[in-house]
Design goal:
This protein folds into two domains: about 240 residues, Aspartate Aminotransferase, domain 2 (3-Layer(aba) Sandwich); about 100 residues, Aspartate Aminotransferase, domain 1. The protein contains nine helices and 14 strands. It is globular, with a radius of gyration of 21 Å. The two termini are about 35 Å apart. It binds 4'-deoxy-4'-aminopyridoxal-5'-phosphate. 4'-deoxy-4'-aminopyridoxal-5'-phosphate (PMP) binds next to helix 3.
């Protein structure tokens, strides 16, 4: 099997071992004569797959017992709506207030959706420096009357990450971990709700994992669709309707793979090494640059620019020819971006650095 190095931001690289296992099982799962995709989601076999995936995720993140794990659909973008619908509190809609931190394009989308249902206070923003840093704790202007506080720990497009978990007192802290979940250990107990679209560190697209503290369930705002009610989802073990069974199964294989790698401590050490090497190389020459404040550099998404943007097209064509795929930056910002999620090996990062050095020599 020939596998290129894939630096796509999402849908992103999956571990080759997981794909091989899926291939082995695709037509005849465990000798049952049918594939996982063709089974009832309510069958004993499928339910065992679903439950194991949840348990493995709980083990990896050490999720406390008073948190529900939901396997939902609609991507992280649907959570931008479900969060306000489930978490706004107040006697009437006029009382709905939430605090949001704005660190880039995904924060902006989350804010825009929440504003459809209530008042959003942007309690800190780094728009002034073109989203090249995260605000510090002392810059967060928390509102006394907010129902919850939302932030984006890792902005996928800008490659900006928080280097701390905000302290928001007794308010539920809500975090969009789409592009950094499972990249390192996390103290789930600090959060009211964590959500993450699957297609980076979890599995293929079609799933969104929500980890929510139980006491936050059961208080939706008027008009919330049944399918958007976390309590309905939790009470039905994420099977109120037909879940995306194959994505859930593949996520389970990824969780098993992560456990085999030694869990999140072990994968975090590899991730940090990969990121240090790549940033170290970018900083070591004048041909490449990354604008993000050092303390806020994402270990998952590494945007970089070339000294001469006129070379961008050549860089992309040559890197692709060298088997290094999907290095174009997000369409909204241009430049380059290497997403180096869990399934992107250290070898892939070494190959990228080798190519970048060679390209700079030839074109610098
Ligand atoms: N939040 C973040 C941080 C993301 O990176 C993305 C997707 N790239 C989204 C939200 C949207 O996810 P989805 O496409 O699953 O709706």
């Amino acid at each position: 099997m020939s596998r290129a190095y894939n630096f796509c931001a999402g849908p992103a690289a999956l571990p080759t071992a997981v794909l091989e296992r899926a291939r082995e099982e695709i037509a005849d799962w465990h000798g049952k004569g049918l594939s996982i995709m063709e089974m009832s989601h309510r069958s004993k076999d499928y339910v065992s797959v679903a439950q194991k995936a949840e348990q493995d995720l709980r083990d990896l993140l050490a999720i406390p017992a008073n948190y529900k794990v939901l396997f939902m659909q609609g991507g992280a973008s649907s959570q931008f709506s479900m969060i306000p619908m489930n978490l706004f509190r107040g006697a009437s809609a006029a009382d709905y207030v939430a605090d949001y931190v704005n660190t880039g394009q995904w924060s902006i989308k989350a804010i825009a959706e929440a504003q459809r249902y209530g008042q959003v206070n942007v309690i800190a923003s780094t728009e002034h420096n073109k989203f090249t840093s995260a605000p510090t704790q002392s810059e967060l202007q928390l509102s006394a009357n907010a129902s919850y506080v939302h932030y984006t720990p890792n902005e996928t497009i800008g490659g900006v990450a928080f280097d701390y978990i905000p302290d928001v007192g007794d308010k539920p802290l809500v975090a969009d971990f789409s592009s950094s979940i499972l990249s390192e250990p996390l103290d789930v107990s600090k959060f009211g709700l964590i959500y993450a679209g699957a297609q980076k560190n979890i599995g293929p697209a079609g799933l969104c994992v929500v980890i929510v503290r139980e006491d936050l369930l059961g208080n939706t705002i008027a008009g919330t669709p049944t399918m958007f009610d976390y309590k309905v989802c939790a009470d039905n073990d994420s099977m109120y309707n037909t879940p995306p069974t194959y994505s859930w199964y593949l996520a389970g294989l990824v969780f098993e793979w992560l456990k085999e790698q030694g869990g999140l401590e072990a994968i975090a050490a590899v991730n940090r090494r990969k990121a240090e090497k790549l940033y170290g190389f970018i900083d070591s020459n004048d041909f490449y640059a990354n604008p993000v404040a050092k303390a806020n550099r994402s270990i998952m998404n590494v945007p970089f620019t070339l000294a001469d943007a006129a070379l961008d097209k050549t860089f992309l064509a040559e890197s692709e020819a060298a088997g290094l795929l999907n290095l174009a930056g997000h369409r909204s910002v241009g430049g380059m971006r290497a997403s180096i999620y869990n399934a992107v090996s250290e070898q892939a990062v070494d190959a990228l650095i080798g190519f970048m050095g060679d390209f700079a020599k030839r074109h610098g």
